[in-house]
Structures are given as structure tokens and as C-alpha cells.
Automatic annotation (TrEMBL):
Domain of life the protein comes from: Bacteria
Entry-linked InterPro entries: CHP03643
UniProt protein name: TIGR03643 family protein
NCBIfam families with a match to the protein in the record: TIGR03643 family protein (TIGR03643)
Pfam families: DUF2805 (PF10985)
Length: 91
């Protein structure tokens, strides 16, 4: 699947979010976990990719719906800003 730059930025943002499961990325963009890993590896610096993989793989997994705690609720903070070109947009 060919993604635009804006879509790639959104997938990366969702992948970094602890509360966003891989299933949500698959539902919205049609990318399986392996595809997200490939995108992250190709887009991020090596050190950033390793840091992300360590976060995803450490402790109880939050990135899979069937493994996450039922007390986690999905919300959007009023202070959350969109990310553009992997940098926090300033308004």
C-alpha cells in the first residue's frame, strides 16, 4: 500500500502512542504489525527505531488489544497536537 507523507506521519505518530494498538493502525491504514515495523525501520533513525522497539516490547504489551488491560480508555487530550514531518507542530 502506498502512503502519502501525511499518512506516514500519522502512522508513525500512532505507533509511538502507547495507547494506540496495532489493530487501530491496521483498521485505519491497512498496515499489519510487520508493515508498521518496516515503515518505522525505514523512516526513523536507527537509534530512534531501537528505542521504539524497546518500548513496544517491554513490559505488558499495550500495543495489542487482546493483551492490554481493560482499564485503559482511549481519549484525546486537549493539549495533544498534530505531528507534521515527525516534528511537533507549533501554533
Amino acid at each position: 500500500m502506498k502512503l502519502s507523507e501525511v499518512e506516514k506521519d500519522r502512522v508513525i505518530q500512532m505507533a509511538w502512542e502507547d495507547r494506540t494498538p496495532f489493530e487501530a493502525i491496521d483498521y485505519q491504514f491497512g498496515l499489519k504489525e510487520a508493515d508498521v515495523i518496516k515503515l518505522m525501520r525505514a523512516t526513523l533513525k536507527e537509534s530512534s527505531f531501537k528505542l521504539w522497539r524497546k518500548r513496544v516490547n517491554s513490559g505488558p504489551s499495550q500495543k495489542h488489544l487482546h493483551k492490554r488491560s481493560s482499564d485503559i480508555k482511549r481519549f484525546k487530550c486537549s493539549r495533544q497536537r498534530p505531528i507534521s514531518m515527525n516534528k511537533i507542530a507549533k501554533r
